[in-house]
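Extended Data, panel c. Modelled sequence:
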Amino acid sequence: MDHAHLQQAAKDHLWMHFTQHSRYATEDVPVIVRGEGAYIYDAQGRRYLDGLGGLFVNQLGHGREDIAEAAAAQARQLAFHPLWSYAHPTAIELAERLAHLAPGDLNRVFFTSGGGEAVESAWKLAKNYFKLVGKPMKHKVISRNVAYHGTPHGALSITGLPGLKAQFEPLVPSTFRVPNTNIYRAEEITHGLHDGSDPEAFGRWAADQIEVAILNEGADTVAAVFLEPVQNAGGCFPPPPGYWQRVREICDRHDVLLVSDEVICAYGRLGEMFGATRFDYLPDIITSAKGLTSGYAPMGAMIATDRLMAPFLEKGEMFAHGYTFAGHPVAAAVALKNLEIFETEGVLEHVRETAPAFRATLERLLDLPMVGDVRGDGFFYGIELVKDKATKESLSDEECERVLHGFLSKELYAAGLYCRADDRGDPVIQLSPPLVIGQAEFDEIERILRDVITRAYALL
């Protein structure tokens, strides 16, 4: 198709996700046609640094022939077969590889088509498991404010973003929210109890709110706690020191499963294969997707402990749940090649070695009056934008629409940086670039952000 045809066909037929289509009534739809390394190119030939890794997905960069060839080779041999009572070699090999990479005895791998399905599967597993071990009332789930866990009805119910949920009510009942770990807003979150100057004390308080919620609901009714290693929505909230260890103690005390939602944080994003390893805790379930294949094929995985699998090994029992394309042979072959490259090219080591420089480069932006906070871990960062640094006053709804979405988001893209300007919570710019970039790309990101944020501040 030529450009005019592409535009008209997109506007007439393509229903894009999380998109206000009215914005394209008088504007072109951005059309990305190819990628190479850390860069993507649009239909007009313009180049953009992929500062978001697609959508927190692309770990190894675009256009890798070795991954494409692995997919093609598998498609020629066996393009598809489901995992419903049958298996195929690539799914078996990948399950074994993930079991070896996951911490502790998380040895049981249940494949899905993506992250939302992995979260959905984890909640169903938690409820099913407790019924089988004689605790049928344990079905409730606790998650954090502002946290995003997916779009299926169960995963959306766990999500802590009311604005994404209201239009789909009624959702699945029995989900409850606790405070998140945004230390920049600690005073507001704790109603003045903590100001963020003692991160460990704030982390202890935040973790203890999980126990308060468990006790309020009754421990005999709570099945699981869903938490991300670094919370995405709201702009990358890292855990304070000791937070995860305290959460693990609380879950153990009340026989509540700890689900580490690593759809974004797994597979190198934080410099380790899993976020649980990065922050030294052992969950009962890990949900993952995105970076598992670096986006070269859709795939997710729920990884569970041997204890959770045990009741399903009894005669006559099964986990009556699954997806047609879960464990797809081609996707599994892509994931295996992706993980192989992690080892042969030292990707985790590269992230660990260069992450301090990435942070330092982004922190140069703190001299701008609109940049209130730079936070994150590894290659995963959020930059919070404020109207007044002294008071931490945030942007109003009108200013978010006019400045964040109406100006800043478009200008970043026009300047050659694809990233995310988001106001689900406080207004932030989110960055999650391919794990293969270095100082030259760090500087490019900082230069573009500095220019555009400076111009955006003048519009407040």
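The chain is about 40% helix and 15% strand. This feature is highlighted in the accompanying rendering.
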